[in-house]
Amino acid sequence: MTLALKLRSHEPTTPAQVAKLFADVASELGEIIGELRELSRGIHPAVLSTGGLGPALRSLARRAPVPVTVNVGLSRRPPERIEVAVYVIVAEALTNVAKHAHASNVLVDVQAIDGGVRVLVSDDGVGGADPSCGSGLLGLRDRVDALGGTISLASPSSGTTLLVELPMTPERVGISG
């Protein structure tokens, strides 16, 4: 969907612009195919496994049709289940921005908080996001709830802010041991 939006938003007029657009599309298609292969095997993106959240979220941002600023302030890597959850949350949020927000900028901010991770995705779009109108935000709520976290959405008549907090310690997610 993001690639289609990017193609629709570009109107190359010179052969050099057409060549650059095709090169960009070919590169993104290669990334998409790689991610589909990984997903079909039931694993998360390799960039998340090898590089962690910073590189993985920047990879998502590069593919977005809207400029995305990514800030990741974690002193250590969270547990894998938290990294995967953060990646999925940001991917879904960016998909929603691309589909609905008509935004010109997005901020993704991931920070360590006491005993956990805070994820903020904020855009300057039209607002009006309603979790009851689609399965994406409901799926995120289920994922966050399963990890013992909290999720809130503010979407007035302009801009939308999604805020998620996830605990990193097993005791806080109902796992004893």
Summarize the structure.
The protein has 177 residues and is α+β, with helices and mostly antiparallel strands. The protein contains six helices and five strands; from the N terminus they run ααααβαββαββ. It has a five-stranded mixed sheet with strand order 1-2-3-5-4, covered by helices on one side.
Characteristics:
single chain, 177 residues, alpha+beta, Heat Shock Protein 90, 2 domains, 5-stranded mixed beta sheet, 6 helices, globular
Radius of gyration of CA atoms, rounded to a whole number: 17 Å
In terms of DSSP E residues, the strand content is 15-25%
Uncertain runs? 171-177
Can you give the mean pLDDT? 84
Query: Could you state the order of secondary-structure elements as H and E?
Result: HHHHEHEEHEE
Number of β-strand runs? 5
Shape: globular
How many structural domains can be distinguished in the coordinates?
2
The first-level CATH class of the largest domain is given as Alpha Beta
CATH evolutionary superfamily of the largest domain:
Histidine kinase-like ATPase, C-terminal domain
- Our measurement of the CA-to-CA distance between the termini, rounded to an integer number of angstroms, reads 43 Å
Any idea of the CATH topology of the largest domain?
A: Heat Shock Protein 90
- Biggest sheet character: 5 strands, mixed
